[in-house]
C-alpha cells in the first residue's frame, strides 16, 4: 500500500487556496529537493521538478477551491470515500500531488509540472515557459476512473459593473435568503440539475413583485454553482418564506438602489446553465454559470460569470452574447481569464493510456470534459508534445460535498505506474 493517502492528508493541513498557496509551494520545493530532484520556480510560482532525461511529464495544479471552512480541513472516511467536515476537500487536485510525492519518494526519472492558480483562470498554465524535455504529458486533473480524457472545454470569465445610487424606500424591510444549497463545479456539474441560489432568489423576488433592493451578496466562486444568496429588500406587501427561501423581517429602513428593480429583472432573465448539448460526446457543449452578484454600500454592483464551450467559435459567440446582455441592462462588461479548448485528439500516447486503464479497471473510454484542463493552454506552448488526462473518481469538487473514492486513488496510481513503465 502506497503512502498516497497519508501524503494527501498532509497536504490538507497546509493552506493552499488559490492566490494563497505559498506555504504549499515552499513545502513541495523542499520535498523534491530532499529527494534529489532539480527544481525551478517561475515568477507566478509554477514548479518544475525533474531528474535525468525523462520521456514523460506529469502535470497537476496545487491550488484548491476553498469552500466552507477551508483551508481548515478535517478529513474523515465514510463507506470508502474520503470527505471533509463542512469544507471542500481539495482532492481536486491534491490527490494528484500526493501521487507525485509517492513517485518522488521512489526516485522515478520523470518531469513534474505543478501549476499555480489553476482554479481562478489557469493563471499558472498561461505563464509556463520551462524547457520541458519529455515528449508526452499526462495531466492528472480528471475526476472519473476508467476514463481517458483527450479534450476539454475552453472558457472565459465575463464580469459586469454598474455604479448606482441610493434613495428612500417604502414599506417594511426583509432579509430574503437562500442558504446551504448543494453547490458544485460550474463545468462538470452544470448539467446535474443543481439549483443556483442566485436564480432561486431572483425568481422569488420576481414572483412576489419585489422591486426595492437595498443590497445583495450572492455566490462564492466563479467556478462554483452558487450555494448561498442573501438580499436585503423593502416591500409594501408582507413577505413569507417558501421552499428554499427564508424570509426574516428586520427593524430597519435602509436606502434602496435606484436600479435595483433592473438587477432583479436581470437575474430572472439570465439563462444560467447548459445552453447547448454535445450529443456526440454526451456532455454539455455550451454553458454559463451566473456565479457571483454583490452590491456594496457605495452603490457599486458587480456580477461575475463563468462561460464554457467545447470549441472556440461557440465560446466567442457566448461571450459576445453575454456582453450584449449586460450592456442591455446598463452594465459595463469585460472578458477576463480566457483559455482555449483542447480539441479531442487520438494519438499513440492516448491509445497507450487507454490500454493501461483497461488492464487495471477492465474497461476504459476516451472522453472529453466540459471543464477547463490545463492541457489546452500548455499544448499551445508545446505543439510537439502529446497529451492525455486521467484521475481518480472525485465527486462534487468546488463544494463542501466534495469526496474522493479511496480505492479509485490506489487503482489509478497502478495505471499511472504502468504508463510510466511503458512510455
From TrEMBL:
Pfam families reported for this sequence: Peptidase_M20
GO molecular function: metallodipeptidase activity
UniProt organism field: Sulfurovum riftiae
Gene3D superfamilies assigned: Zn peptidases
Keywords per UniProt: Hydrolase
GO biological process: proteolysis
Lineage: Bacteria, Pseudomonadati, Campylobacterota, Epsilonproteobacteria, Campylobacterales
InterPro entries in alphabetical order: Peptidase_M20, Peptidase_M20C
Name by which UniProt lists this protein: Aminoacyl-histidine dipeptidase
A GO cellular component annotation in the UniProt record: cytosol
Source domain of life: Bacteria
Keyword Hydrolase: yes
Amino acid at each position: 500500500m502506497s503512502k498516497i493517502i497519508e501524503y494527501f492528508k498532509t497536504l490538507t493541513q497546509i493552506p493552499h487556496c488559490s492566490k494563497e498557496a505559498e506555504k504549499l509551494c515552499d513545502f513541495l520545493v523542499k520535498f523534491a529537493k530532499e529527494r534529489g530532484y532539480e527544481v525551478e520556480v517561475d515568477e507566478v510560482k509554477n514548479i518544475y521538478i525533474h531528474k535525468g532525461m525523462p520521456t514523460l511529464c506529469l502535470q497537476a495544479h496545487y491550488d484548491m477551491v476553498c469552500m466552507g471552512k477551508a483551508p481548515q480541513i478535517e478529513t474523515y472516511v465514510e463507506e470508502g470515500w474520503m470527505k471533509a467536515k463542512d469544507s471542500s476537500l481539495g482532492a481536486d487536485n491534491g490527490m494528484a500531488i500526493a501521487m507525485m510525492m509517492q513517485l518522488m519518494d521512489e526516485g522515478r526519472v520523470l518531469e513534474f509540472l505543478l501549476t499555480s492558480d489553476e482554479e481562478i483562470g489557469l493563471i499558472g498554465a498561461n505563464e509556463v515557459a520551462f524547457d520541458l524535455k519529455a515528449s508526452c504529458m499526462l495531466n492528472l486533473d480528471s475526476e472519473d476512473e476508467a476514463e481517458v480524457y483527450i479534450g476539454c472545454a475552453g472558457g472565459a470569465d465575463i464580469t459586469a459593473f454598474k455604479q448606482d445610487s441610493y434613495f428612500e424606500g417604502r414599506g417594511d424591510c426583509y432579509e430574503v435568503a437562500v442558504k446551504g444549497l448543494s453547490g458544485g463545479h460550474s463545468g462538470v456539474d452544470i448539467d446535474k440539475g443543481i439549483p443556483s441560489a442566485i436564480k432561486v432568489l431572483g425568481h422569488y423576488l420576481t414572483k412576489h413583485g419585489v422591486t426595492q433592493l437595498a443590497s445583495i451578496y450572492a455566490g462564492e466562486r466563479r467556478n462554483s454553482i452558487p450555494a448561498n444568496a442573501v438580499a436585503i429588500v423593502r416591500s409594501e406587501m408582507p413577505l413569507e418564506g417558501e421552499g428554499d427561501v427564508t424570509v426574516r423581517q428586520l427593524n430597519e429602513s435602509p436606502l434602496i438602489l435606484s436600479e435595483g428593480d433592473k438587477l432583479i429583472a436581470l437575474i430572472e432573465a439570465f439563462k444560467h446553465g447548459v445552453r447547448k448539448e454535445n450529443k456526440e460526446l454526451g456532455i454539455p457543449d455550451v454553458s454559463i454559470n451566473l456565479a457571483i452578484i454583490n452590491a456594496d454600500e457605495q452603490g457599486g454592483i458587480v456580477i461575475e460569470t463563468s462561460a464554457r464551450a467545447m470549441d472556440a467559435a461557440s465560446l466567442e459567440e457566448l461571450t459576445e452574447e453575454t456582453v450584449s446582455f449586460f450592456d442591455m441592462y446598463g452594465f459595463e462588461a469585460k472578458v477576463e481569464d480566457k483559455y482555449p479548448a483542447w480539441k479531442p485528439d487520438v494519438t499513440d500516447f492516448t491509445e497507450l493510456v487507454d490500454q493501461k486503464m483497461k488492464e487495471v479497471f477492465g474497461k476504459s473510454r476516451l472522453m472529453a470534459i466540459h471543464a477547463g484542463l490545463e492541457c489546452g493552454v500548455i499544448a499551445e506552448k508545446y505543439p510537439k508534445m502529446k497529451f492525455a488526462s486521467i484521475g481518480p473518481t472525485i465527486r462534487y469538487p468546488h463544494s463542501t460535498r466534495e469526496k474522493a473514492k479511496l480505492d479509485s486513488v490506489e487503482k489509478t496510481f497502478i495505471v499511472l505506474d504502468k504508463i510510466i513503465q511503458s512510455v
